[in-house]
């Protein structure tokens, strides 16, 4: 299984966020911290798909998958393990 790290997800988030994401805790709510909003979420999903070569559907856009850096890294790792190609 290909493991996507929190650092890799943080790098993708830094590309789409206007905030400094280096200080965001791995388990901190990105929405509550104001680091991520619904508009940035669209760009984030596109960046994750491009970077990791997978498809993220609307039904995947849940708080457990996208509210924290840990949640995102675990979700993308599972998605890659499922073999969902572009």
Summarize the structure.
The chain has 86 residues and is an all-alpha fold. The chain has four helices and no strands.
Put simply, the count of helices is 4
CATH H-level superfamily title: ACP-like
- CA radius of gyration: 12 Å
Low-confidence stretches: none
Order of helices and strands: HHHH
Amount of beta strand: under 5%
Mean pLDDT: 91
Just name the CATH architecture: Orthogonal Bundle
Q: Quick one: how many beta strands?
A: 0
Sum up the overall morphology in one term: globular
Q: State the domain count.
A: 1
Given helix and strand content, the structural type is: mainly alpha
Biggest sheet overview:
none
- CATH class equals Mainly Alpha
CATH topology: Non-ribosomal Peptide Synthetase Peptidyl Carrier Protein, Chain A
Query: What distance separates the N and C termini?
Result: 17 Å
Helix content: 40-55%
Structure overview:
The chain is mainly alpha-helical and 86 residues long. It has a single domain (6-82), classed as Non-ribosomal Peptide Synthetase Peptidyl Carrier Protein, Chain A. 51% of the residues lie in helices and 0% in strands. The protein contains four helices and no strands. Helix 1 packs across helix 2 (38-52) and helix 1 (6-16) crosses helix 4.
């Amino acid at each position: 299984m290909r493991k996507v790290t929190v650092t890799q997800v943080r790098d993708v988030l830094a590309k789409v966020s206007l905030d400094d994401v280096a200080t965001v805790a791995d388990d901190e709510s990105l929405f509550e911290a104001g680091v991520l909003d619904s508009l940035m979420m669209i760009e984030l999903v596109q960046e994750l798909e491009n970077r990791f070569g997978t498809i993220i559907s609307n039904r995947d856009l849940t708080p457990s998958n996208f509210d924290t850096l840990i949640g995102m890294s675990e979700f993308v790792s599972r998605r890659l393990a499922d073999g969902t190609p572009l």
